[in-house]
Amino acid sequence: MPDRPDHSDGPGADELAALDAHWRAANYLSAGQIYLLDNPLLTEPLRPEHIKPRLLGHWGTSPGLNLVHTHLNRVVRARDLDVVCVWGPGHGGPAVLANSWLDGSYGEVYPDVGRDAAGMARLFRQFSFPGGVPSHVAPETPGSIHEGGELGYSLAHAYGAAFDHPGLVVACVIGDGEAETGPLAASWHSNKFLDPVHDGAVLPILHLNGYKIANPTVLARLPEPELDELLRGYGHLPIHVGGDDPLQVHHDMAVAMDTALDRIALLQHAARREGVTERPRWPVIVLRTPKGWTGPKDVDGVPVEGTWRAHQVPLSGVRDDPGHLRRLEEWLRSYRPAELFDDHGRPRPEVLACVPAGPRRLGASPYANGGLLLRELPLRPLEEYAVPVKAPGATRHEPTRVLGGLLRDVMTDTADRRDFRLVGPDETASNRLEAVLESTAKAWQEDVLATDEHLDRHGRVMEVLSEHLCQGWLEGYLLTGRHGLFSSYEAFVHIVDSMVNQHIKWLRTTRTLSWRRPIASLNYLLTSHVWRQDHNGFSHQDPGFVDHVLNKSPEAVRVYLPPDANTLLAVADHVLRSRDYVNVVVAGKQPCFDWLGLDDARVHCARGAGIWEWAGTENGGSPDVVLAAAGDIPTQEVLAAAGLLRRHLPHLAVRVVNVVDIARLMPQEEHPHGMPDHEYDALFTPDRPVIFAYHGYPWLIHRLAYRRTGHRNLHVRGYKESGTTTTPFDMVVRNDLDRYRLVMDVVDRVPGLAVPAAPVRQAMADARARHHAWVRAHGTDMPEVAEWAWEPSSRPLEP
Amino acid sequence: MPDRPDHSDGPGADELAALDAHWRAANYLSAGQIYLLDNPLLTEPLRPEHIKPRLLGHWGTSPGLNLVHTHLNRVVRARDLDVVCVWGPGHGGPAVLANSWLDGSYGEVYPDVGRDAAGMARLFRQFSFPGGVPSHVAPETPGSIHEGGELGYSLAHAYGAAFDHPGLVVACVIGDGEAETGPLAASWHSNKFLDPVHDGAVLPILHLNGYKIANPTVLARLPEPELDELLRGYGHLPIHVGGDDPLQVHHDMAVAMDTALDRIALLQHAARREGVTERPRWPVIVLRTPKGWTGPKDVDGVPVEGTWRAHQVPLSGVRDDPGHLRRLEEWLRSYRPAELFDDHGRPRPEVLACVPAGPRRLGASPYANGGLLLRELPLRPLEEYAVPVKAPGATRHEPTRVLGGLLRDVMTDTADRRDFRLVGPDETASNRLEAVLESTAKAWQEDVLATDEHLDRHGRVMEVLSEHLCQGWLEGYLLTGRHGLFSSYEAFVHIVDSMVNQHIKWLRTTRTLSWRRPIASLNYLLTSHVWRQDHNGFSHQDPGFVDHVLNKSPEAVRVYLPPDANTLLAVADHVLRSRDYVNVVVAGKQPCFDWLGLDDARVHCARGAGIWEWAGTENGGSPDVVLAAAGDIPTQEVLAAAGLLRRHLPHLAVRVVNVVDIARLMPQEEHPHGMPDHEYDALFTPDRPVIFAYHGYPWLIHRLAYRRTGHRNLHVRGYKESGTTTTPFDMVVRNDLDRYRLVMDVVDRVPGLAVPAAPVRQAMADARARHHAWVRAHGTDMPEVAEWAWEPSSRPLEP
């Protein structure tokens, strides 16, 4: 048992008064940010010119967030805890900014906005003002790891932050609006994956202020016994707090916090010291306070406090309506600012009595600036995993299985540090990464049966059938200073399109903030991809995630399509060492020809795109045509087409280009990896036909390369939504990405062929017809495809 | 009370035997589809050549689905019910196909695959075979409204199907894997929105077979009391069934079904006949049966039945391993096929004893082929809503508010039919569509307080803070023959990227199936768009959904960007009448200049793109430059730029083009709306500079138009991720979409200007500098922008 006193009586009158002073100060500062351009301390009567011309921001959630922050301050200070808080209602920016200003962390990061009258004036003015700070809890906000504008991800972020931080308590305020979202609803079950020994604790605080923008919320209107059943069904022990009498709520909230933290300490002690292995029933605090509490009770004859009308700006006509202006002044003065701040605008000692010191302050926690905690990931030499390549295409390996060896050793080499996790929606084995399970297990806190394999309470492979949880957990994990990889079926990563948007926005912004230290990149391994959905078909075929991320801030986005096992290793090594990116790696899990030895793979991946001389027939001269590929299946089809061209059009000078780093195709000015025009021209020629076989939607290549000199000659093949359950080769034929079609494209586009083109074209059409008949008769790919392999030859074959 | 007998004793021995026969037949047919190429009735010993060369499909979930189907048959027949079933584990295609074959509906739709030996042989062979049918419950499957490959949406679809179908019971099988997803977790609360009077019932059947692909499931490993609390917390009454003794499970399942349906009847009777308004506690069936039940218990020394190893193909080496072949034959013969099918392969009468008749069969329900039930939506003449336009830009309206009037009348005119719903994540008022609330209310089954507005148990506006639920409900509603509109903040519609993928795939496929009747389109109204996020900033700014959908099957996707109120009306009228599309309409909610009167708007929207002669200065001649716009804010900036050009470069012949239907830019061969090259050239010229101001990511326009003759001269401005909380005009300046930048683009790109270009360029740069200083000083847009309005003039202004 922890040696804590019994807190059930709660704080005394003096402490309650001080807590209330802090809360009033935070409320005053929150309202001030929304309304005031000047006169921050109300040293003179409020006049219209003191009011911002555009009133923007969200008051409704702010008093509740301030209450939580005040009481987190109290327990951090009393118990000397490391706490970070994830503010789910991130639109309540004024509240978190107010608290960060009060605890001094804001002024440490932004010295212009210190704890005095001038700083307070700047705090108010800058809020939601052009050139100022966003209206939400944003990357710019000290102590924050969560923007919250989109709603849904707070609790998953909180768990991600808690994993492998055994000394940390992650509080998480969940708004009752956010609680209606799918990702949040799924996140409650994260407690089935939290190891009480090696992980920290998550303290969810479900804040029921009752309303969204325009409606009551589902959870706030449940009868309390039904809500209680729900939370118990989620595996929690609910602690209820509520009311609208500030001092009573302060008292009850302090008791609730103490009860929750005592219980957390007890459960951790039991698991860590007493060997208890039963899944803990962690506490959850249910906090019911009015929306817009302490704001105007009613405005223009309709109720505001305690209703949805308090969501944004309760008094909207302040500059023009003297009545509203008077109401605002009354409201602001109701906090008794002169009691809270001295004549210089400095918070009085009573206000700051609950505020902890140094890095224990929520605004100054190193956990919320994860780069401060980040260590280099131990990565062994790739030689330990590389597949030997005597000749291109002579052997085949499953690229992701090869990568599995590397990931296994990362797991082994971080076994003590515990700062690497692999997440995926029940797909680690399906994606052939199961070598990692030789080193660690899959995290699991529920019962384990005799037939189960690789399940353990302390495992660091995270499998849950929710891409949202995988993404949210990993984001929280990375943002608090660790490393990881998310392996997903390619099609279903679209489930987190919107989450990755928000993470890219976060990274883009933090890159401009010198005090935010770089964090490990968010690495996706997209496999079980569009071309190999033999079991599942159309619903599992979608290569559009690359298009999605390439629309976003180029400084934070990288996309790689390694064509074989060794290039996948080289890419993986690179992305695992990188910082502040979203890296998307698309790679196959099926047996794939090994094209490049490790050294060649390293060079090729470092360049991002290059000529494969050994596969072409230009012999150093100028090519008649360029065959380009990005992706494993396109690479295979391009090489098969090159082989067919050697046979059928032996005098044609063919160049084979392979692209790994897809952003290299972009103009230099549009992406940091974009290649200069002269390099693009040297690779693709300015004037020869380029037949480009691309893994995904073909028009993406046009969108990247439309400014290039040779763009007119660029002809792209790729996935065009012709999907179903069929054989691998039938998939490429259906989408016109097959070797025969590529040869036909060459024949159609190279002017003045020395050999008559028609017979070659006919031969290709015949091969496609043979395929069609064979696959429908046999259900397999025809032998000439199934048994195809690259024939290495430096000279053109005889026709 | 319904006049049903008491079923608590369950069925007698004969009925149990018949139910078991039906179940065995379905299991036999399921396994047969996965394995057999020939010898469907096992009339001879199984040989390798009878086995498919590629073994694909999912056995694990199939026996459970077959059990549910058998028992749904029983209650449909016994109670003469209209039931559709949403099969969440849609990868269990073999099961639903087997049942549809057994109830005869399959053979009615596909006469080659009738209920005889030849039909059975085809049923087996075609499954997951090239040219055959997909391995999942797909659009091709009679009785299905749900593909299920992605997992997560079954329960939301079920509720959507039940809304406004008071006579329907929608059963919904939820796999315990799917139950881990976010959308499914949120869907449980859909019961807070189901009206027991006007809506049908949803019967969730949570199928705990314990495992996903490679792991146990979270819910299956919960202690039963904890699971019970969870389901009660969701507002349900759980009914538990489980075991592995078939006859006992048949008995218990029959009792559970009767209990559930009795309760549903009771609750509906209470609400409909007795005026009970309390929110019902609807039943949920929890079904625990082994994964891969009745399949091989173990294979090669490891347990298979009842573990994750049964997920796909339990015996994988059947063609090559005589032991596996023998085990397969034993397995198939364990169902005693000779007792189930006669010598001609026809199911024996006992097998069909539970099968209902005609349209009551799950495979033949018209509810699952919603186009059969669809009625034209009553739409009044647009003249009733159109805003008068005396001159372009003379007045301003909020386009979505104008649309609200139309939607209000649709609600009014469908008040009795109840076949139109408006869904949105708590944003109907925020998106300024609140006129609909004059006609109907927001659906709400929880308590209503005195301060609430527009909440009602019978309302048809659906607001919940979950885009997943909005989308899932609407899909289910449309798929069962009704109409609707989804209004969303533009940025957050990305949350359903993956769902819309699946719906587009569904529509694309149904378009090839003549027996599937067209359904109403899924209509998105995307508003609160990227350019007007004054309150929220960067997290709320993302125009990429258009890019996402335009990657998908062009036959099923349409995108419209109406630039003002009347064009929005014309577009809305069109999309609400359309069938089998996903229509994306992007429109603003802020006051916007009225450019076109209704007649002009109709013509302009029908063309999809056109020259606005009144805004240009070419006077019928050939333009020096084309200013094009798509979207409301770009249109405003282009017209402002045109005005500046009239002033500064009066002799420049400027053409103004406006694009509403963005797919018109695509080549004719790539999209049904793509315009022929001669039309494109006539509009944009083949050789003049085109400055295109686009609402979203600028490269989308290049991706659509890269094949056009004049593409080299196309210069696009749009959103480039420069977002924050700021003024509307500052947003366009930050992204270089502003009028001054557009004029600079013209100056930079039109060769040989008669007037020296440098001073004009400087004037524009000065204006941008003025803006910069003003907005940072005042926090508002400068008067020359804020007060700008189009000056109609047919002649160039004096310089």
How many helix segments of chain A? 25
What is the name of the CATH topology of the largest domain in chain A?
Answer: Rossmann fold
- Using the coordinates above, name the CATH class of the largest domain in chain A: Alpha Beta
> Any idea how many domains of chain A?
3
Q: What is the beta-strand fraction of chain A?
A: 5-15%
Going by CATH, the homologous superfamily of the largest domain in chain A would be: Thiamin diphosphate (ThDP)-binding fold, Pyr/PP domains
User: Main β-sheet of chain A, in a few words?
Assistant: 6 strands, parallel
Rounded to an integer, what's the Rg of chain A over CA atoms? 30 Å
Report the oligomer.
Answer: homodimer
Distance between the termini of chain A: 84 Å
Relative helix content of chain A: 25-40%
How many strands in all of chain A? 22
Which chains make the largest contact? A-B, 124 and 124 residues
Envelope shape of chain A: elongated
**Low-pLDDT regions of chain A:** 1-6, 794-799
What is the SS-derived class of chain A?
Answer: alpha/beta
Trace the largest sheet of chain A across and list its strands. Answer: 12-9-13-14-16-15
The CATH architecture term of the largest domain in chain A is 3-Layer(aba) Sandwich
Mean of the pLDDT scores of chain A?
95
